[in-house]
Structure formats: C-alpha cells, structure tokens
Amino acid sequence: MKHLVIGATGNIGARVAQRLIVSGARPSVFVRSAKRAKALFGNHVDIHTGDLENPGPALDTALLGVDGVFLVTDGPDLAKRDRAVSFAASRAGVRHLVKLSTLDVRTGIGTGPWHARGEDAVRESGVAFTFIHAAGFMSNALSWSESIRRAGVLRSSTGGGKIAFIHPDDVAAVATVSLTTRDYDGQSLVVTGPESLSYGEMAATIGRAIGKSVGFEEISDRQAHAGTVQWAGAGPYVDALVDIWRAVREGRLDTVTDGVKWVTGREPIPFGQWAAENAVSFQ
Questions:
Q1: From CA 40, how far away is CA 42, in angstroms rounded?
Q2: What are phi and psi of 71, to 5 degrees?
Q3: Which of 113, 153, 198, 212 is the 20 to 30 A CA-CA neighbour of 128?
Q4: Reported pTM
Q5: Which residues contact 258 (CB under 8 A, 6 or more apart)?
Q6: How far is residue 245's CA from residue 255's CA, in Å, rounded to a whole number?
C-alpha cells in the first residue's frame, strides 16, 4: 500500500509519516519545503513539493499510484484545499482519504464550520473517507509557556470550564490505523484525551512537572482577544479561538470518549505525561 501525507511537516502529519516509516512503509509527502521534509525524514520518504493554494500538476504527480491520503489543512478557507485534494485523489483512483478534522464540527464552535465545509467537499468527491474529530491538542498548551516562565501564571477566559485535550501522538496513532487498515471507512472518529480538565488544573499539572507553583487567573473575552491579537494578528483565527474558550467556560466542550482505545487498543495519554515530556518549555 502506498500512502501520501499532506501536511507532513506539521505537528500531526510528521507523526503519521514517522509511524508509517517505522512500520516499514515508504510514504510519499506533499510539502512546500523539500529541505524541511528531508531534515525530518531523511531518505525514508518520497518528497513532492507544491502548494495547495495552487496545486496543479504537482499534486496530480504526487497522487500517482497512491492508495490512501492523510490530509491536514487549516484556516477559514480550508475547504478550498480539501476540495482540491479530494477531487484530484478521485481522478487519480485513490481509494481512501483520512482527514484530520475537529470535534467542533459537531457543535459549530470555533473552527468547526471551516472543517464542516471541508468534510462536505470530501464527501462530494466520492472518495471513501474517514474523518478524525479530535479534541484540542495538548500541544496547544505550549502557547502558555511565556506567561508561565515569566509570571508563573496562566491567564485565560476559560474560567472553570473543562476540556479533554488529546496528545498529538494519540491523534497520529488513530490516523495511522485508519489509513492503513481501512476499518473505519465512512466514519467520523471522535477522539479525546482520557479526562476533562480545567485550564487551572492543567496549569497546576505543569507546575508539578517543573517543580514550581503555577497559578491561574481568569480574564474576560475582550482581554483574551486583545492578548491573542498581539501574537496571532487580528482575523478569523483569533475570533475562532475566543469562541472556543467561551465554549469551554460554558461547559460545552467537556466531551470525553473512548475513541483512542477503540481504535488503537490502548488508553489515551494523560495530560500529566505530556507536561512531563514538555517541561523544559515552561522552565
């Protein structure tokens, strides 16, 4: 079986490609930077360079002889890229596409509407699909590192609301199983971490990992928006984040599922382990 990973130099795509390599496969990757792909994967992948904003023949070439595609896209216009990939995959005879989506598709919160449109595009292509409805990633907590290092505090508009962040390795594991077994064709797999935690609880967990007290301070939506604009710039992405944080505060994103265990056969990785693995980022 030949697999193509689109988004292979990103947080999840790189992990999927590495898992395929470890299994003995030689995946293809479609990337904008061949140099970065080479640094990540050496000579263990076939590298195709291109840009999904204008994929053209480069994408068609990358899809030749491919059985399955793992697709990661982002941004408010991601449906455009999902459509380009899935319809090109259909023309190339690809049999299966796994799209990394979001749990928020089910609620219409944050980036959920973006991915809902992307899923519709994939369905319209006629290619067999699996959608991975993932909770927020534990690695999102890396954005807290500066505040924790400088002030020993996490400031957030999430209040006491909870969310079951998922370890990126668990997302990659579910994606790889879906891609290589095809046991979940036509399904939307809902995957979360093992427990729903408040941001204050996660801050305290990071504190234990680094050996110092880390506090939590609630801020308003307006303050959260202004603070995020400083590092992300104004636009729909910031609006989506504030929407997600509001939903957490209101108890609308505290879903916990056994999806990871159902697909992989093991329990999902707890936040405490992620914090220990990334302690240096907060010290």
A1: 6
A2: -125, 125
A3: 113
A4: 0.97
A5: none
A6: 14
